[in-house]
Amino acid sequence: MAVFGAPALAFPGLAQAPTPRLSVVVHGLTSDGAFVFDPDEIVIPQVPIVLNVTFTNMEASGIQHTWSIDSAGRDEAEVISSGFLDPGENWTVEFTINAMDNITIGTRSFAPEEGVRGVRYYCVPHRIGDAGMVGEIVLASAAGPAGEPAEKGINIRAYWIGMIGIVAMIGWVGVTYFVIKSSSPRFKDHRGHVRKGLP
Question: For the segment 74-90, what is each residue's pLDDT rounded down to a tens digit?
């Protein structure tokens, strides 16, 4: 399962918009007898982006899990790490992905460990093997196997901008209707209209 976000629009000549934000909830659990992340792929619409990840250990068997990102070449293990979480516990982290090869957390920037298509995140005790508990943060342009339709979501900011635009358009149409109706010579005197049997 992948989580997608929609890009924010930028128009030339306007002041630089703040870096877009995306919030994601990731669960650690057992599925078909294997430890997995749900989702195992976080799809970001663009870089730079501020990513807020809330990791919750949903393990029913009492196993501890972590959510971690290493530096490239594993020079420094667990640069970003939840530490071991018991079932039911959660942890939240916020960091900026400046580029797919550069992450900033607080005042520290580092090159993250690469996955197949993006930045790899993993559970420390369960990362071993092909079926290990690993996931990736990928750009939308690199997401999903070929031929698979993209599952899209939207940034909350883009949603509200769209909703405000729709409400403003409906309001403008309503005002325009009454301005045109009241300025037309045929509708100046409603009594004359009723006298002729018109509505």
Answer: 666 668 888 888 899 99
Listed residue (20, 44, 49, 55) closest to 156, CA to CA: 20
Residues 82 and 164 in one domain: no
Q: Residue 48: which CATH number?
A: 2.60.40.420
Say how far apart CA 69 and CA 129 lie, in whole Å.
17
Q: How many domains does the chain have?
A: 2
Total number of residues shown for the chain:
199
* Model pLDDT for residues 106-145, shown as the tens digit of each residue: 888 888 888 888 888 888 877 775 567 888 999 887 655 5
Same-domain pairing of 48 and 120: yes
CA–CA separation, 148 and 78 (whole Å): 33
Domain assignment of residue 98, given as a range: 2-153
Q: Bridge-partner residues for 103, per DSSP?
A: 97, 110
Question: Burial level of 125, CB count in 10 A (0-12/13-18/19+)?
Answer: middle
